[in-house]
Amino acid sequence: MQNERPHSRTPNPTSPDHGRGAWKRAASGDGEGVAVPSNTATNNSINGLDLKYLRYGVDSLYLSYQGELFKDVDTKLIELKRLARSENPTEQAKAQYRIGDHLFEVKDKGSSMFAYVLEDNAFRISLSRPKKAVPMAYVKISSEYLTYKTPEQVEAHLKDVLSHLGAVQSVANVSRIDLYLDFATHQAMDEWGNDAWVTHAGAINTYSIDRHFTGWAVGLGSVIAMRLYDKVTEIIKSQKNYLIPLWQQAGHQVGVPVWRLEFQFKRDFLKQKEIQQFDLCLANLGGLWSYATTEWLKLTVPNEADQTRSRWPIHPLWAVLASVDWESNESPLKSRFKNDRAPSEEASLDRGFSGLTTWMAIHGLDDHVEALHRYTSALSRHIYAIADRMGVPVDEFIVGKVAFKARQFNTMNNNLIEEDLDYLAEAYRRASDGE
After folding, report:
1. Alpha helices in 178-304 (DSSP H)
2. Residue 427 sits in which domain range?
3. Domain annotation covers residue 280
């Protein structure tokens, strides 16, 4: 069943604006020089522009929690991290931690100030050891998971997961949040130059691939950053195909380019605005977007006759992009989500096809039917030869290889085949020692 999306809360009018009017305008809805379009328009025109909103919301979310890791969990993670660092792949395969329907891979290394890292397709959880003066948990929530549940639903589930690892002693604090808008348009995004951007940031960059313009970036590395980029080209590279059906649900027509406008807000900026707490941050999404698009950065139509750039008129495209109504977000959500990170079946078959055609080229074969039979026979002999060198039955050798990949993909609990893995680990040590 489709997830229900609660309406965004009204931006908090009591949030400090530090002299920046965007926060108050976001609360009152009277953005300066910006006409508010309808988000439910059925055609591809907003304010007369060839443009259609497809979806918008939170793309990246990093949360931290104060608390204390349970001692028995700490002890278990010490052992699992030791297994993950083993040179023996069958021991590495057992570095897994199950919580409910999450089968986390335990990484061989920590990160920054955190001793342990657990990861699946939904969360990357960094944990500190007990009695450390750092947050108990620092969590990166995957972009795909945020297309399946609302941020409120995601955080509630995450807090439940963390309760199995330690005593959570604080509300969630936001270390980073990225807001995005996907829109379809034939508008050329390179028809203006760097001077059209009026911004507090110092760095303005453009990008292209094979002479195809792919986007802009402003303020990378600072507490606020913007990216405006060709999302279709990015999907071809990242394989985030799950967005395409969601665009289609929103009325995207095949062949119309899709661009993403994205703003990244880091912890220092959120602390300055006193909205670092998760609930406060979500209540001020409209204020964040309004500040970013009307105070921190503007796309203008340059006027050479006026040397005061702040007076240059706002580009019509920017006026529309700045006017997203964060209080009535109706962006569609995915109906299904998998916690594992397994590649698609098609990707697996593509790798097999690549192996077959490589083998055919080596042997100068062009009859694929005959080649497929000979290839599978050669592959079988190759597998048996490796198992024989290790001194283990081929079935158990394959079990070990599958277990190693299953840990990486979060697909199979290797504790269920622990005896086989222990046997393979000993065989691997004997083979490594030349016995």
Report:
1. 231-238, 243-249, 267-272, 278-283, 285-291
2. 345-432
3. yes
Q: Are residues 368 and 287 in the same domain?
A: no
CB-CB contact of 183 with 176 (8 Å): no
Cα distance between residue 360 and residue 354, in whole Å = 10
Nearest to 291 by CA among 82, 27, 6: 27
Phi-psi sector, 272: left (phi>0), alpha (psi -120 to 50), beta: alpha
Q: How far apart are CA 97 and CA 217, in angstroms?
A: 39
Q: Into how many domains does the chain fold? A: 2
Same structural domain, 296 and 375: no
Q: Is the pTM of this model over 0.85?
A: no
What confidence score (pLDDT) does residue 234 get? 94
Distance CA 120, CA 98 (A): 10
Are 312 and 218 in the same domain? yes
pLDDT of the residue at 395: 86
- Alpha carbons 396 and 394: distance in angstroms, whole number: 5
251 and 362, same structural domain?
Answer: no
Per-residue pLDDT of 310-324, as tens digits, reads 899 999 999 999 999
- The DSSP bridge partners found for residue 213 are 208
Is residue 140 a contact partner of residue 178, using CB atoms and an 8 Å limit? no
In a domain, 158, yes or no: no
Please name which of 281, 323, 193 lies closest in space to residue 9, comparing C-alpha atoms.
281
* Longest Cα–Cα distance in the chain: 84
Dig out the tokens for 229 from the structure. 């980029």
3-state secondary structure of 281: helix
Helix 394-409 vs helix 368-390: angle between axes, to the nearest 10 degrees?
100
Query: Confidence class of residue 238 from pLDDT cuts 50, 70 and 90?
Result: confident
Distance CA 73, CA 30 (A): 52
Query: What is the average pLDDT value for the chain, to the nearest integer?
Result: 86
